[in-house]
Amino acid sequence: MSAIAEGMRALACEKIPEGYGLREARRSETLTCVQLGLETRRGQILEGGNLWLITALARNTTDAELVIEEPACHAGLD
User: What pLDDT, in 10s, does the model give residues 38-75?
Assistant: First the structure.
């Protein structure tokens, strides 16, 4: 299993993989989505080795169902 898949699976199970640490995202570590009706907020960073997984809280600001368009989102690591 790839490191990314392993990390995502662990997060989904509310676990932290061995060798990784979870911390609050710094102000400069953001995930931005340019999609109407989607609001994002900084979440946490899972880091270990050369891998960083950035999480964000996403909120649908419309009354309709919303599918997140992944290409509309990008991480900022200043």
Answer: 999 988 998 887 888 888 899 999 999 999 998 999 88
What's this model's pTM, rounded to 2 decimal places? 0.69
The two tokens of residue 46 are: 């899972």
Distances (CA, A) of 21 to 2, 27, 60, 63, 72: 18, 18, 29, 36, 27
Quick one: 67 exposed, middle or buried, by C-beta within 10 A (0-12, 13-18, 19+)? exposed
Task: Using the Cα atoms of residue 9, residue 75, residue 35 and residue 71 in order, give the sign of their dihedral.
Answer: negative
